[in-house]
Amino acid sequence: MFELIAQHPIIAALVALISLAALFGAILGFAAVKFKVEGDPIVDQIDNLLPQTQCGQCGYPGCRPYAQAIAGGDAINKCPPGGQSTINALADLLAVPAPTLDEEHGVESEVKKVAFIREDECIGCTKCIQACPMDAILGAAKQMHTVIADECTGCDLCVEPCPVDCIDMIPVETGVKEWKWELPPLKPGIIATDRHPQDQHTGKAA
Amino acid sequence: MTSLIRIRDIPGGIHPPEHKDQSLRLPLGSVPLPPQLVVPVSQHIGEPATPVVSVGERVLTGQLIAAANGVFSANIHAPSSGTVIAVEDRMLTHPSGMSDTCIVIETDGKDEWIPLQPCEDYHALDKAALQEKIRLAGVAGLGGAGFPTAVKLNPRSTEVIDTLIINGAECEPYITADDMLMQTRADEIIAGTLMISHLLHEPKDLIIGLEDNKPKALAALQKAAEGTRVQVVEFPTKYPSGGAKQIIQILTGREIPTDHHSAYIGVICLNVGTVAAAWRAVRYGEPLISRITTVVGETLEIQRNVEVRIGTPIDFVLAQHGFDAKKASRLIMGGPMMGFTLPSPSVPVIKTTNCILAPTLKELPPPAPAQACIRCGLCADACPASLLPQQLFWYAQAEDMEKLQAHNLFDCIECGACSYVCPSNIPLVQYYRAAKGSIRQHEQEKEKSDRSRRRFEFRQQRIAKEEAEKEAKRLARKQAAEEAKQKLAEKAAAAAPAPQAEVVAEAVAKARAVQQTPEEQQAKLERILAAARNSLEHAQQPLVPNEEGAVITQEQLEKQQARIKQAELKVSEAEKKLADFMATQNNSTAAPADTPAPANDPVAAAIARAQAKLSMSPEEKLRSTLESLQTRLAKAQEKANAAKAEGSPTADALQQGVEKLQQKIADTEAELAQLAPAASEANAPSAEQHAAEAAIEKAKAKAAALATMSEEEKRAEQLKSVETRLQKARERLAKAEADNDPNIEAFRNGVVKLEEKHRELQDA
Predict the structure, then answer these.
(1) Residue B108 reports pLDDT greater than 70
(2) pLDDT value at position B753?
(3) DSSP B148
């Protein structure tokens, strides 16, 4: 045996490589079974990126069904509440080019909105309560209803069923807490004389 | 007092022009009461306070006007006496220029104080009461962040505080408020330090740290600290040594890990102004209603430090100092490095206003236009937090949140050293602030969307559950209706069930229940035998003398022998029983005609009888006849031979008998020979046998199937069979009724029984 190997180095090399391959194969196989990580299913990852307004503007009854549809190959640009940033994030996740928002499903709103019920006009029909996907409307039959603003996602699904049109979508009030510094203008004028003199007074004390 | 503290250096840092002289030339001044005080309810980090006064109410100096909203908040007090004229949204002293609730007080000039509760000796108070006093006074960090002090003084029980650092570094250019405070109120600072040390269970080191550009303050503090264990330490001037993280690193060499407070590494760091305010709150019961502020800038005639009431409009303060609005480029609250441009001169002084900077255009020119980053790396050299500012800049531009967090954006203290050294004049800090804001906003949105998802999923579940319940109710109603219908039909069918037939059926059922299969009986007998043998063995065991009586008595021996005998008897009895049973079993299969049927086993007996009948083929009968004939023939021949030899007169008659017997044997043999061709037929099962065997086979298959079937399947199977039986029984009953059969009652009874069984199975 040894002589055979000594005389034919090609056999020695083959034996060595095959045994190494078998060994590593076995180790990898063992590791694949033993250290198996239950991967985050793609639907969950997509669902995590969607804004969870459950508004149905994409044509599906909620964000998760749309996530399932995307996982099944549907377009990623059907979510107006998420807007371009959601589309970009989805494109990033799915490694596809980011399209622009499909206007057919609605337009991206700049300001966040919440539903507001004009309470003295409410007749207590409970239709908006049944329509709300968030359980964010409180009330009972023939009693006044009101919106829990913190839980409202601004999906406006309650506006349509209201028989007396007493629901408004009003912009969310933003206070000092929500305020954040703006990024400086992205394309600074490189040549000083290109800039408007007013701009020179706007920067911060730095 | 000589310092025992080793001074360390911080990475990076810069040396901008200090501009501290101009505000220190005049002694600490004061600002008269303005006609109106505008007090925002949110001057600190955390929840805004809730106003507790109403419009038109007269308030006294130091009266609570807005109460802390939770732990992470601070009380707000009236800075002077007067009347509340409005509780409304006013522009805040905040870079956003936004408006929020402010309490507006029209001062009456009397400055009438509420009764205060001074405390001569804080040692007399327990620590919770002491802390409560500081909390009620609304003390918040006066260094600039506005962190509620009471929260800081209540570290978690797991955090052992070994160092208390009082921050008097005041590293930012222009600002001298803390310097002035240390010069004028050194004793208050030392007393406050000792009080807080008491509150924190006496940490090992009490250090007041300040930069070496404040010799007067150092001297005053050292004088006041004489005889106490407070160490006053000075260290080289370098911006931003006054940052909490930086001064901790300079004085202790420890660094605060990301996402932790200083208490995590056993250090509490407070500003000198905060300590003095806390002391006044405890000693004199004074709430925080005023502070020392540096009013500085070349647009002012007078540059100095002033003690100013919180809520005083900044334009009022500036007017007292000869402010020339024409010369001013902008107004800044805080220093030139970390301060922000005021949205309007009319905003009020708040708890964190340490400096009002009113520079001329020449003094603080607007930043030059930003140019492209040339990757020079000066910012990385200047960064006191050892971050990579230019990398952060790229990622902030690209809004790459993950990369920003991976590069520890949140460790940035926004000191502005990177922007200061940047040769391209890039407003780096503004990028970081914007990026931090975006990340926080993103996290909040994420949290909200997660909550929305949970709510939505919960709603879906609830709706599904409701649907399921409805469906179940519907099914239950349907079933109930069916049952009612069935019962009605039953009543009609079983109008008069015969009691006699029922008794008979019951008896049959009983007999069935009692009866056992031969296998079971055998097993039982074997068990009995095994048990008997066991007890015999047990009895035969040699006697073991017990502990007390070492000798085995005669009585014991006799007893044992009796036991052995009894056991032996039992064994033999059991053996006999088993043998008998086996014999009967064998007989019942081999020669069944002889076996008497066991009385308690009518079914088995019947089966045995049937089997016997079946096994009695004509061939066998003939053979046995033939055998007996042959023996008779042999005997007759013998007798005939004997008679012949003796010459008896009966010899002829005997010979005739032999011949007759021979004839008979021949006949029988002929008959047997005739039967032989039909042997195969005889071996083949007759119709009767076939049916019986088929039934047995069926039963066996059923039993096997039952064993393998699950409980539900079994039930279903049973149900099915019962149903078919019921149908058959009904048919038979109908036929009997048509024929007017005498057994009609029995049939009816059977149907009722089956129906009952059927219902039982359905219910199960």
Answers:
(1) yes
(2) 80
(3) B
pLDDT tens-digit series, residues B73-97: 899 999 999 999 999 999 988 888 8
Q: Does residue A200 belong to the interface with chain B, where contact is any CB pair within 8 Å?
A: yes
Asked whether the beta carbons of B38 and B311 are under 8 A apart, the reply is: yes
Q: Is A187 on the interface with B (CB under 8 A)?
A: no
Contact in structure between B111 and B36 (CB atoms under 8 Å)? no
Give dist(CA A89, CA A73) in Å, integer.
Answer: 16
Portion 34-73 of B in contact with A at CB < 8 A: 42
Interface subset of A 68-127, CB within 8 angstroms of B? none
Please state the pTM of the whole predicted model: 0.65
Percent of chain A as helix, strand, coil, to the nearest 5:
35, 5, 55
Q: Is B6 exposed, middle or buried (0-12, 13-18, 19+ CB in 10 A)?
A: exposed
Q: Which residues of B touch A175 (CB under 8 A)?
A: 98, 100
Q: Is A43 helix (H, G, I), strand (E, B) or coil?
A: helix
3-state secondary structure of B499: helix
Name the phi and psi angles at B469, rounded to 5: -65, -40
- Please state, in angstroms and as integers, the Cα–Cα distance from residue B170 to each residue in B70, B166, B212, B296, following that order: 31, 11, 11, 15
Exposure of A128 in the CB half-sphere (CA atoms within 13 A): 33
The tokens describing B463, both together, are: 């709706």
The strand ranges marked E within B331-483 are 332-333, 340-341, 355-357
Q: How many CB atoms sit inside 10 A of residue B340's CB? A: 17
Q: In the prediction, which pLDDT does B57 show?
A: 92
B352 near A CB under 8 A: no
Which residue(s) pair with B234 in the sheet? B210
Residue B332 exposed, middle or buried by CB count within 10 Å (0-12, 13-18, 19+)? buried
Calpha distance B339→B344 (Å, rounded): 14
Lowest mean pLDDT among A36-40, B55-59, B241-245, B354-358: A36-40
ipTM above 0.90, yes or no: no
Contact A205 B98 (CB under 8 A): no
End-to-end alpha carbon distance in chain A: 80
Q: Are strands B82-91 and B355-357 parallel, antiparallel or unpaired?
A: unpaired
Looking at residue B516, its pLDDT comes to 58
B603-624: average pLDDT: 61
pLDDT at A25 over 70: yes
Q: Are strands B82-91 and B58-59 parallel, antiparallel or unpaired?
A: antiparallel
Task: Choose the closest CB to A184 out of B427, B448, B452.
Answer: B427
What six digits make up the tokens of B668?
Answer: 């029988």
**Window 384-413 of B, Cβ < 8 Å to A:** 396-397
List strand residue ranges (DSSP E) for B92-149, in order.
99-107
